[in-house]
Structures are given as structure tokens and as C-alpha cells.
Amino acid sequence: MSNPPRLTDLKREAILAAAIAEFRSNGFEATSMDKIAATADVSKRTVYNHFPSKDDLFAAILVQLWQKTAETNELSYRPDQPLRPQLLALVQQKMRMMNDAHFMDLARVAIAAAIHSPERARGMIDRMDKREEGMTTWIRAAQADSKLKKTDPEFAAHLLQGQLKSFAFWPQLAMGQTALDEKQQAEVVQIAVDMFLGYFEIKS
């Protein structure tokens, strides 16, 4: 039987949740540690015990975002399997992440803060790109197996993921559009994969 979560861990999660809510509602600059403490129903001292500054708290939120992205990068290339079902599974995983409400909340916080503070965005963008390495690794392995045309695997991964983001990420993030339903998600995933393989796959 697993041990119950410690009170300090529960407080930390409450602070993170409160910070996400406040950052979303008021933006990074207008959000105070006092307000976060009140929303989390903890003392300001407790907030500072966990996060020495607002920047540290924001960084912890970004770590959650990166970890959420990393969870989609667990599928490895299988040389004994056809390309299409493998790539469909990988892209479907990415699509599910984009339709996760918690992930979108974190993305809104990160991007809004980055717009107002470009210097804060540099490290975030670099680390987010690395967190998409799973698809790049899959493409690189398929190229090494002579199943995909030789090109920059990072470029190819961005092409494929860009098609998903143009339908299932940026419209929802920037324009408040509703998330795609399951039928729409499946259609975007299948067409994106078929277009990608139609160009890059080496026919035997």
C-alpha cells in the first residue's frame, strides 16, 4: 500500500495550482506572492519556503509543462513493424496531450509570460524543443533503417507536429476555440501522418 502524500507535498501542489490560476487570470507581472498564498490557503511564509521567488515558482510550473510533454515521448521505433501504425500511435499520443486541459493551462501561462518577458522565454523554448526529441528520435531511427528519406530529423518532426498544432493547439490557445472532438482529432492525425509518409517514406 502506498503511503499517503505528505502535508508539505499537498501544500506545494496547492501553491502550484493557485499560481497557475492567478497567472492565467492576471498575468505574471500582476500576480503577487501574497495573492498566490491566499488562493492556496497557505501562509506567505509557506509559499517562500517552497519557492524563494516568483521566478522560481514560475520555473516550477514550466517544469510541470515540460514533464507533461515528456510523457508523450515513450514510443520507440520498431524496425519489425510497419511505419504507419507506429507513427499513428506517436502522433495520437501528441494529440491527446494537446487536448489535455491541464497541459493547455500550463501552456497559456508559459506563453503569456514569455510574450511580456522575452528573456524569460529563451530558456523555455530551448527546453521545450528538447522535450519533443521523442518524435525526432523516432524519425532518425527510421531514417537509419532506410525507411524514411534523409533530411534533418528535427526539421521533419517540426513539420509533422506543426500540422497538429495548427489545428489542435494554437487556435485553442490564441483564439479560444473549442478543443477538437474525437472524430476531428482522428481526421487530423491520419491526414498528417499520411501526408508525412507520402513525402518521406521510402517505398520498397
TrEMBL record:
<dbReference type="InterPro" id="IPR036271">
    <property type="entry name" value="Tet_transcr_reg_TetR-rel_C_sf"/>
</dbReference>
<dbReference type="InterPro" id="IPR009057">
    <property type="entry name" value="Homeodomain-like_sf"/>
</dbReference>
<protein>
    <submittedName>
        <fullName>TetR family transcriptional regulator</fullName>
    </submittedName>
</protein>
<keyword id="KW-0804">Transcription</keyword>
<keyword id="KW-0238">DNA-binding</keyword>
<keyword id="KW-0678">Repressor</keyword>
<dbReference type="InterPro" id="IPR050109">
    <property type="entry name" value="HTH-type_TetR-like_transc_reg"/>
</dbReference>
<feature type="DNA-binding region" description="H-T-H motif">
    <location>
        <begin position="32"/>
        <end position="51"/>
    </location>
</feature>
<keyword id="KW-0805">Transcription regulation</keyword>
<dbReference type="InterPro" id="IPR023772">
    <property type="entry name" value="DNA-bd_HTH_TetR-type_CS"/>
</dbReference>
<dbReference type="Pfam" id="PF00440">
    <property type="entry name" value="TetR_N"/>
</dbReference>
<dbReference type="InterPro" id="IPR039536">
    <property type="entry name" value="TetR_C_Proteobacteria"/>
</dbReference>
<feature type="domain" description="HTH tetR-type">
    <location>
        <begin position="9"/>
        <end position="69"/>
    </location>
</feature>
<dbReference type="Pfam" id="PF14246">
    <property type="entry name" value="TetR_C_7"/>
</dbReference>
<dbReference type="GO" id="GO:0003700">
    <property type="term" value="F:DNA-binding transcription factor activity"/>
</dbReference>
<dbReference type="InterPro" id="IPR001647">
    <property type="entry name" value="HTH_TetR"/>
</dbReference>
<dbReference type="GO" id="GO:0000976">
    <property type="term" value="F:transcription cis-regulatory region binding"/>
</dbReference>
